[in-house]
Write a structure and sequence with these properties.
By secondary structure, this protein is an alpha/beta fold. The chain has one domain: P-loop containing nucleotide triphosphate hydrolases (Rossmann fold, 3-Layer(aba) Sandwich). The chain has a seven-stranded mixed sheet, sandwiched between helices.
Length: 190
C-alpha cells in the first residue's frame, strides 16, 4: 500500500475540543470512517463517557475496539478499505498498556521495572506509527497533552506523564500535520 496517505495528529488538554475537531478531519476524507476506540469501561462514569462518544459518531462509521493492540487494529482495519481511520485516543491506550501486567500491590513502586515498561510501550508506539504509514489510509490520531502541569508525586504517574510525552513526540514526528487544540480552537503547529 502507498505511503502517501495523510497522517494527522491532534493533541490538547481535557475537553479542549480535540475529538470534535478530529471527527471533522476524519470525515473530510469520506463517509466510511473506521473509529479505533481505546477506552475500557472500568467504572460507571467511564461507561457513560464511552456511551456519549458512541452517540456522537455517525451511524455509518465502523468501530474497532482496540484497548491494547492498536498497530494490529490499524493493519486489520485496512481490509474494509475505509476512507479514513480515527484513533481516539493514545492517552487511554497508554493507560491500558502501562497498567497491563502491573500488579495492584505495586501501586507505590514500579519495582525497578521502569526501563522495561518504557522500552515495551515505546516500541509499540513505533509499531503504531509505522502501521499507520503502511496502511495507506488517511489517519487522524488523538492524544492528550499531560506534561504542562506539575510533576506528579506518584512513581507510576510520573512514568505515565513521561511516556505520554515521548509517545506524543514520536507520533508528531511521523505525522504530516499536527494540531494543538485549546478552548475548542485547533491551531496547526506542523
Amino acid at each position: 500500500m502507498p505511503d502517501s496517505a495523510p497522517f494527522i495528529f491532534v493533541v490538547g488538554g481535557a475537553r479542549s475540543g480535540k475529538s470534535r475537531f478530529a471527527h471533522r478531519r476524519a470525515e473530510s476524507f469520506g463517509e466510511m470512517v473506521t473509529f479505533i476506540a481505546t477506552a475500557t469501561p472500568m467504572d460507571s462514569e467511564m461507561e457513560a463517557r464511552i456511551a456519549r462518544h458512541r452517540a456522537d459518531r455517525p451511524s455509518g462509521w465502523r468501530t474497532l475496539e482496540a484497548p491494547h493492540a492498536l498497530a494490529r487494529a490499524v493493519l486489520e482495519g485496512t481490509s474494509d478499505r475505509p476512507d479514513a481511520f480515527l484513533i481516539d485516543c493514545i492517552t487511554l491506550w497508554l493507560t491500558n498498556r502501562l497498567m497491563d501486567g502491573l500488579p495492584h500491590e505495586e501501586s507505590d513502586t514500579l519495582s525497578g521495572r521502569e526501563k522495561e515498561i518504557e522500552e515495551r510501550i515505546l516500541a509499540e508506539i513505533e509499531d503504531l506509527a509505522q502501521s499507520i504509514r503502511r496502511s495507506g489510509v488517511p489517519s487522524v490520531v488523538v492524544s492528550n497533552e499531560v506534561g504542562s502541569g506539575i510533576v506528579p508525586m506518584h512513581p507510576v504517574s510520573r512514568l505515565f506523564r513521561d511516556l505520554q510525552g515521548w509517545a506524543n513526540q514520536r507520533i508528531a514526528a511521523e505525522a504530516d500535520e499536527v494540531y494543538w487544540t485549546m478552548a475548542g480552537i485547533p491551531v496547526k503547529i506542523k
